[in-house]
C-alpha cells in the first residue's frame, strides 16, 4: 500500500487499521499485506501471510454470508487460522510469529466478543487479555496488521454488555495505537493515516522497556541475517550518495525558524544537514528507530597491554543485562542492542591479526548486520566496540592509512592497575607503543589496501565494522560514530567505496588523538565536543536524545510560515 510504504525498507511493521461497520477497513488491511495501494488496483502479493480469523462462528445467515465474502477475497496462498472460541491463543500466536511472517488479524471486535463470551460479560473481563495482546504486539518481530472496530462515534449503548464492549474496544484501540508504528482510520473506504512511522510520535518498538532490548549474535552464526551482498566488496565499489539538495534546503530553512535565540541550533545544525541528506527530506524526521551494534574482539599481544579480558567480560555481561554505560544509555534512548562476539585477533607485532581468507567473510558478516538494521526500517545505526586492545589496533590502522607516527596517536591514560576505569599506565602505554612500532615495521613494504591492513593490523572487529559501514551506505542507512574503531573502519571503507564517509556522522571525538586525525582525513567534524570517555558507541547513545531534539526543532515553523 503506497500510503504507508509497506514494501519499502523503512515501512512500518505494526499497523492498526480502524474503521466502523462496512467502512472498508478489512479491504484496506488486506491491501496492505498484499502490496496493493488500498484501492484494489493490484500489486505484488506478499508471501507467507497468515490470516488470524477471530469470528467465533456464524450464528445467522447474514453473518455466514459476511464470513464467506471475507474468505473469498483471500488469495489461495494465504494460510487461515481460525481462533473460534479460543481467543486466548491470539497473543501467543503474535508473540511467537517468525520475523519473516506477515500476520493479518481480522478483527479485534470478534476477538473481544469471544473473550467476553469465555469470561463472562463483566466490565473487567478483557483487562488482562488486552494487556497480553498489547505486550505481544509491542514485542513481536513479525509484520503485523490489526483490524479493529472504531466504536467511539456512536451513542452510548443502552445495555451493560454493549457498554462493556464499547469501553473494552476503546481501551484496546488506544493501547494498541501506542505500540503500533502506524495507525490508519478508514472512512467510506478511504484510508486516512493518523500515525506514521516517520513522525515524532512514532516511538521505537520497545522504547518503554525498563532495560535495554539486547540480543547476542555471532556474526557468522545462524541467527545473523542470511542474505549475501550481491556486489563484490572491492576498491572502486560504487554506492549511493546522500541527497545534497535536501541537505542544503534543510540547512537554509534553519535560518528561517521562529526561535527566540539568535544562535539557533549551533553545531547541532550539522546533524540536521546530515539527517536531511541521508533521509532525502527537508526538514528531516527525528531518528526514532535506531539499532546499536557492540562488536567485541580481544587483541592479543602488546596491543592489549593494560587491559583485562575479565573486565571486558564483565562489561559485556552488564550490557547483555541492560546495564553498564552502553546498556543503560541504550535503554534510556529506546535503542535495541546487538552484541556481536568475534574471534580474538592475533598479536600484530609477531604475526597477522587475522587470517586473510577470513577477512572476506568478516566483511560480508558486517554487511549482513547492516542489512538487518535496514530490513527493520532503522533510521540510523550506532557502531560500538569493546575488547582488549581494540582502540590500539584501530590506532595502528589509522597511523598506517595516514602515514603518521603511531605513538603520538595512542591515548595515554594514567592510573593504577586497580583503578576501575583508567588502566593504561606508563608501562602498558610503552608496551603498546612497542607493539605498534614492531607491527608497522613488519608490514613496512606490504600493500596498504584495506584487506591487507585488516589482515595485518585490524582484526575481526575492524573487518566486521568496515563491512557494516559499506552495507549501511548501500542501504542508505546512516551510522553514528564516536571512537577509534568506527573511524578506522570508515577510513578502510572509504578506500573501498568513497561514498561511505557521507553516511557517517561523528558525534563526538572524545578528545582521542587518533579519532581527531581520522576525522580530519575523512573531513568529518564532530557534532558536539563533550570529550566523553564512556566507551566506544556510548557517547553516540548519550548524545542521541540531543540529536533527536535538534531534528524536532528543525521541523518547526519558520518566520515565513
Distance between the termini: 32 Å
Q: Low-confidence spans: pLDDT under 50, at least 5 residues?
A: 4-10, 36-46, 198-211, 220-226, 414-422
Give the C-alpha Rg: 26 Å
Number of helices: 18
Total strands: 13
Helix amount: 40-55%
Percentage of residues in DSSP E strands? 5-15%
Which overall shape is indicated by the principal axes computed on the Cα atoms?
elongated
Q: Describe the largest sheet.
A: 7 strands, mixed
Overall structural class, as computed from helix and strand content, comes to: alpha/beta
Numbering strands along the chain, what is their spatial order in the largest sheet?
A: 3-2-4-5-1-6-7
Would you kindly provide a written description of the structure presented here, covering whatever features stand out?
The radius of gyration is 26 Å and the shape is elongated. The protein contains 18 helices and 13 strands. The strands form two sheets. The protein has a seven-stranded mixed beta sheet, sandwiched between helices. A six-stranded parallel beta sheet has the order 8-10-9-11-12-13, with helices on both faces. It is α/β, with parallel strands linked by helices. The chain has helices at residues 25-34, 61-73, 89-95, 108-119, 127-139, 160-179, 244-254, 269-279, 309-320, 324-333, 356-375, 390-402, 426-442, 450-458, 460-474, 484-494, 513-522, 538-554; strands spanning 14-19, 49-53, 79-82, 102-106, 143-149, 182-187, 190-195, 214-216, 290-296, 337-341, 380-386, 479-481, 504-506. Helix 9 packs parallel to helix 10, helix 11 (356-375) crosses helix 14 and helix 11 crosses helix 15 (460-474). Mean pLDDT is 82; it is low at 4-10, 36-46, 198-211, 220-226 and 414-422. Helix 2 links the parallel strand 2 (49-53) and strand 3 (79-82).
